[in-house]
Amino acid sequence: MSEKPKALFTDVVGGMCPARLVLEHVTSRWGVLILIALLERSYRFSELRRRVGGVSEKMLTQTLQTLERDGFVLRVARPVIPPHVDYSLTALGEEAARQVSELARWTDSRVPEVEEARARYDEARREIATDPSQ
């Protein structure tokens, strides 16, 4: 009796898939942007906060800790005064960053189509709302 071959891809859409949590971390609002920024170079905390516009200090801290725990980000504290901490990507983090960067590039190239779809949707909704026969 032969063994069933192991699936190449886990069911992230299903309930309790371990990959699902990792996917959530990598594709979170700030996770994507932090990974893309760190693909450019390593950053100190304050530099990274300025680079990733709109992120609060608290969210940047939490997201960096999550990405570090998952093995995507390396945090290096230098024993100087004041403390100097650098954040960079691990090899795993660089691979993930390249993937989300491609998704971001694709998204950027499709913004006009998305805006057109939104306009059509909104127009159809307005027509339904103003048509008394509906």
TrEMBL record:
<dbReference type="InterPro" id="IPR036390">
    <property type="entry name" value="WH_DNA-bd_sf"/>
</dbReference>
<keyword id="KW-0805">Transcription regulation</keyword>
<keyword id="KW-0804">Transcription</keyword>
<dbReference type="InterPro" id="IPR002577">
    <property type="entry name" value="HTH_HxlR"/>
</dbReference>
<keyword id="KW-0238">DNA-binding</keyword>
<feature type="domain" description="HTH hxlR-type">
    <location>
        <begin position="17"/>
        <end position="115"/>
    </location>
</feature>
<dbReference type="Pfam" id="PF01638">
    <property type="entry name" value="HxlR"/>
</dbReference>
<dbReference type="InterPro" id="IPR036388">
    <property type="entry name" value="WH-like_DNA-bd_sf"/>
</dbReference>
<protein>
    <submittedName>
        <fullName>Helix-turn-helix domain-containing protein</fullName>
    </submittedName>
</protein>
